[in-house]
Amino acid sequence: MAKKKDKKAKGKDKISKNDKAKRKSLKLVAKKANGNDLPKVSSKPWGKDGKALDGVKILDFTHVQSGPTCTQLLAWLGADVIKVERPGTGDITRGQLQDVPNADSLYFTMLNHNKRSITLDSKSKEGMKVLERLVKTCDVLVENFAPGALDRMGLTWEHIHSLNPRMIVASVKGFGPGPYEDCKVYENVAQCAGGSASTTGFHDGLPLVTGAQIGDSGTGLHLALGIVSALYQRKRTGRGQRVLTAMQDGVLNLCRVKLRDQQRLAHGPLKEYTQFGQGIPFGEATPRAGNDSGGGQPGVILKCKGWETDPNAYIYFITQAPVWEKICDLIGQPDWKTHPDYAKPPARLPRLKEIFERIEQWTMTKTKFEVMNECNAFDIPVGPILSMKELAEEPSLRQTGTVVEVDHPTRGKYLSVGNPIKLSDSITEVERSPLLGEHTDEILTKVLKFTPREIAEIKASGATGQAPKAQAAE
Ligand code: CAO
Questions:
Q1: DSSP designation for 408
Q2: Of all protein residues, whose CA lies closest to atom 44 belonging to ligand 1?
Q3: Which of 99, 300, 399, 407 has its CA 20 to 30 A from that of 46?
Q4: Quick one: DSSP state of residue 468?
Q5: Would the pLDDT of 449 be above 50?
Q6: Contacts of 434 (CB under 8 A, 6+ apart)
Q7: Can you give the pLDDT at residue 24?
Q8: 112, 126, 130, 145: which to mutate for ligand 1, most atoms within 8 A of CB?
Q9: What confidence score (pLDDT) does residue 49 get?
């Protein structure tokens, strides 16, 4: 009995020790614990209580769009992102689609906010010395070179892992392992190979690519999630791992509902597609559905007042079943609420063309914003077709930081899309993109801790850019 008591006491002791440890760790995240020993909600204003990825160092070896989208997101979430660029030219997008002479293009500036830039010739001995030091110092290496390029540089996974077993190596490639794994891929190639183009456009028209950069930016997003997950797993295992996202896979993931429809075809026609009501037979593959709604709620784009001259005077209108009666009242067709041809969703499916034509008679009497307001009053889901000009000028997007004005030393003020992911504690201050090699000295000295003599040697070799004239002439 005494022994039992002893055990109990020891158990209590254990619990209280655990409790102490728990309290100590909680103190790190909460100034004061509430009655339940749980951290209190931050007392600081929205987005002002530390950065989510504070302390994470990223070796950003990305270029063009897919990789930079990923590392920009990580930078916005608080990671220290060091972009390694080729001396002289840097990321090719700096000079692509230039609108202001001698200034980094918007293509580059809008994809590389909040990063530092170091120029390094990875194919030189001294350049590789610096890169290896970066590998040892950073937590994550992100790259989106053509297949095999990183290996050809000498940075194989095995080598990186031997230098820094904690390092996560994250890559975007066009295709995963298989017949196309060696191919170079750009946005529209991925949209075509990932199933988006074959399912976008009108039934009787060409396959279309979309304006949304689902191949590049979409894959960058997928990669960022993979990296954050690998960082989380590393907390348990202590080791890094490889993260691979193929653009074809990323696009297909975003086209998931179209693969759903492909399988539904085996069981009959896709009744929510306009072509069903038009009596056009379905083929073997998911067809292009024009503007038909992707889900079970039929919807299309309808003209609004001004459509004759304004290319964006349109609205997306969804005949959501629960609000059908309100739609009937709003468009002045109350008899459809009880009419057997219109009252229930299955009865409406073969008549969608006629139904939307009737709704369009109503939307054409109003601007897209009037339609939006009147429909929203009755919970009818509609979407005005907003132009880039309207989005750029929308005050609410400016207020939330989704659209931000950024100042840049060589191009002046420009608009950018800020961090679309809002965290209540973590700060996102959108900072301008770096000039080419702007932080080379700072990184060599403060991050990599090279001595002045070593830095002089690195620079004299030309690894960070043109070698000083005296040495170059030797
Ligand atoms: N110093 C020296 N050399 C460097 C360097 C540096 N700092 N940075 C890159 N390089 C070299 C690479 O080592 C590579 O050399 P090798 O071919 O001799 O090994 C070379 O530059 C070019 O790399 P790349 O083949 O990736 O570039 P590219 O312009 O020919 O192709 C792209 C571009 C996007 C088609 C290709 O990188 C790719 O398919 N990437 C994967 C998919 C992807 O992300 N696509 C999205 C692009 S955005 O639309």
A1: E
A2: 144
A3: 407
A4: P
A5: yes
A6: 83, 112, 115, 116, 117
A7: 47
A8: 145
A9: 76
Distance 460 CA to ligand 1 centre (A): 26
Tens digit of pLDDT for each residue in 15-70?
Answer: 344 444 444 444 444 444 456 778 888 887 766 678 999 999 999 999 999 999 99
Q: How far, in Å, from the CA of 140 to the mean position of ligand 1?
A: 19
Q: Return the beta strands (E) in 76-197 as ranges.
A: 80-85, 115-119, 140-143, 168-173
User: What is the distance in A from the centroid of ligand 1 to the CA of 149?
Assistant: 7
CA distance 266 to 86: 52
Interval between CA 89 and ligand 1 midpoint (Å): 13
Beta strands 403-408 and 412-417, pairing class: antiparallel
Tracing tokens 């889900």 back to the chain, one arrives at 295
The number of the ligand 1 atom at minimal distance from the alpha carbon of 65 is: 48
For 184, 298, 345, 468, the CA distances from 193, given in Å and listed in that order, are 12, 27, 35, 47
Does residue 145 have its Cβ closer than 6 Å to ligand 1? yes
Report how far residue 270's alpha carbon sits from residue 428's, in angstroms, rounded to the nearest whole number: 44
Q: Is the CB of 200 under 6 A from ligand 1?
A: no
Q: What's the rounded Cα separation, in Å, for the pair 312 and 302?
A: 11
Pocket of ligand 1, candidates 84, 150, 184: which has the most ligand atoms within 8 Å of its Cβ, to mutate? 184
Closest CA to 300 of 366, 255, 359: 359
Detail the DSSP E strand segments found in 5-144.
57-61, 80-85, 115-119, 140-143
Between the alpha carbon of residue 65 and those of residues 187, 322, 387, the distances in Å are 9, 41, 22
Burial 21-35 (b: 16+ CB within 10 A, else e): eeeeeeeeebeeeee
Q: What is the CA(79)–ligand 1 centre distance, in A?
A: 24
Is 123 a pocket residue for ligand 1 (Cβ < 6 Å)? Answer: yes
188 CB within 6 A, ligand 1: no
Question: Model's pTM, two decimal places?
Answer: 0.89
Q: What is the band of 350 on the pLDDT scale with cuts at 50, 70, 90?
A: confident
The number of beta carbons lying within 10 Å of the beta carbon of residue 43 is: 10
Residues with catalytic function: 216
Report the amino acid identity of residue 400.
T
Closest CA to 53 of 71, 84, 27, 80: 80
Q: Whose CA is nearest to atom 28 of ligand 1?
A: 146
DSSP 467: P
The residue length of the chain stands at 474
The residues facing 43 across adjacent strands are none
Residue nearest ligand 1's atom 46 by CA: 186
- Residue of minimum CA distance from atom 14 in ligand 1: 149
390-418: average pLDDT: 97
> Residue 413 belongs to what H/E stretch?
strand 412-417
